[in-house]
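Bench notes, afternoon.
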Amino acid sequence: MLKTSLFCASSAKKSIGTIVGKDPIPVIALRSPWNHPALTCSDLLYNTMIKLRDIDKYVDSRFQRTFILKSVNLDVQQGEFLTLMGPSGAGKSTLMNIIGMLDEPSAGEYFFFDEPVHRMKEKQKSDMHKNYIGFIFQAYHLIDELTVYENIETPLLYKGVSGSQRKSMVAEMLDRFNMVAKKDLFPEQLSGGQQQLVGIARAIVGQPKLLLADEPTGNLHSDQGKQIMEIFQKLNEEGITIIQVTHSEENARYGKRIVKVADGTIVSDEKVMVGA
């Protein structure tokens, strides 16, 4: 395993990516086989990753206000694997986009590692999104003109990672997903399952803390879907927090918690029973 020395402080000032305080205590961060930190300073200081308080999302027309989300309260702990379920139009994807900082609530408070996202400027949110969150989509959203290698590399370019480090990180993803021989192929030359594997590799290559997956197996046949869900389960075991949207009860059972949404509100929140 690779080891990275970190410094935490017992009386620290809360700040994402920066731990400030007196008498720093050396802590060893052990990296998992997936190269994601299993233990970091923020892991020691915070257990709750996401706090949503009285979140509303609405659209005003001339004569009425239409609510997409109403009075949503939700806490997500680090290391959870949470599934959002509900009928079409219930507000699941809107809630996911707010959590992913792609959309803003109309009212309410959103804290990410105790940082007030609802008060952040666009540049701050963009940096948070870029450095801490990975997205996986039903329709893959790969760039047709780029090869497998280049698609996986793209988020690292946006993060300003050096060329030599990018090469190493992409090579690891290709190896993990057994796609070394396909690195020079274009998306149209891949099966749906292979395209989604590239999408997952692209989402996690930057070592995000949070992985958001919107119907990740919706376009795949059952065997491919099972493979993807087993990968998610493995990633969660490695320490990545995962929130997925799905209509599949079977896929939901891979996680640890199921939150059901209807008419823009949370109607149930249950732990997944092992062996259920």
